[in-house]
């Protein structure tokens, strides 16, 4: 016989059935999420013959992500500068200028690195 706390009432069959149904629903939801996530994450791999081509493709992808982040920062800096001109806030104007400068540098990172390395 199980030892129960005094505040706990014994569960009748209807409560047990509901508890089992809730557990089954949770287990099914977890299983469905796992199957769906595995189906979504399957990606066909198209491998190139040349290993240098793979590295070049990865490099292009990373630099395109960096360029997108730089353009977002550039747009935010322009927005911040415009709002500072409207509100006559010099500290926000300085932050806007710095954000614009950072966005330009991040946007043209690949070209800057190409100029530095000479190739």
TrEMBL record:
GO molecular function, one term: lyase activity
Domain of life according to the entry: Bacteria
Membrane-spanning ranges: 63-85, 97-116
Sorted UniProt keywords: Lyase, Membrane, Transmembrane, Transmembrane helix
Keyword Membrane in annotation: yes
Protein name, UniProt field: Formate hydrogenlyase
UniProt organism field: Anaerotruncus colihominis
């Amino acid at each position: 016989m199980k030892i129960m706390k005094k505040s706990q009432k014994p569960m009748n069959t209807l409560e047990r059935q509901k508890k089992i149904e809730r557990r089954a629903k949770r287990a099914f939801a977890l299983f469905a999420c796992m199957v769906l996530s595995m189906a979504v994450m399957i990606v066909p791999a198209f491998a190139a013959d040349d290993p240098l081509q793979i590295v070049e493709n990865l490099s292009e992808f990373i630099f395109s992500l960096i360029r997108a982040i730089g353009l977002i920062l550039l747009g935010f800096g322009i927005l911040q500068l415009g709002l500072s001109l409207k509100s006559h806030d010099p500290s926000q104007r300085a932050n806007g200028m710095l954000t614009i400068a950072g966005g330009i540098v991040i946007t043209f990172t690949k070209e800057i690195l190409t100029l530095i390395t000479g190739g």
